[in-house]
Predict the structure.
Amino acid sequence: MSAQTEDQRREDRESVAVRLASLQRVDGNKHCADCGERAPKWASWNLGVFICLQCAGLHRNHLGTHISKIRSVHLDAWTEEQVANMEQMGNIKANAVYEANLPEDFERPQDNEADRKSFLIDKYQLRKYMSTNVADDSIRTPTTNGGETSSSGKATKEREFAAVRIAKLLQVDGNNQCADCGELEPKWASWNLGIFICFQCAGMHRCVLGAYISKLRPLDLSYLTEEEVTVSGLLILFFAAWKCFCYDPVN
């Protein structure tokens, strides 16, 4: 029985390898979906795109697994659902969605890592170039890791929605700097105070103020709940209005 099971597993792996190799020969999949590099060896299976090593690293480090789930085409194990999603999407179809409003004269960043990171965040996290005719349900992550229950899928969708809302809040004037010290690109938030702050200030909030005054979340490592995102958004809008109407620079 064990020999038969092992034979079946080997056959499954071989079948997956053949299907992925076939997909890599499809027009559009021969180049990285993000930067255009030839012969991509990595993939984001939930987005359904083949990408190069450099873009795969940026997906993993800056987008996170709640947005992009990375697999090596040759080195990682693949499930049936993951391969099926790649077959259903592919680079051409995915870019028709995520790059529908990309300017015709846009030059894909290749040499500058900062520009490439910015482009990927705009494309997948902020969905800056996405077609307005595409519903969220048609592009949501199928499941968390290729075979979970529908309740887990719902939780994943909620996390994705929260991530998009947080990313949009970070684009609001003032939120691209720590609310306390002014450091650029804060990576933490005090959701009950409604402010974005840097790592050092977050440590001071936690050690000196305590959770009863300031409730902290790291933006890249954990997920804010619907309540936390809503409270943060409302407080940010409140303080923005206060600055506009109540602050007198003369006095």
Observations:
- Helices lie at 2-24, 53-63, 80-88, 91-98, 113-125, 150-169, 199-209, 226-246.
- The mean pLDDT is 79.
- The longest strand covers residues 42-44.
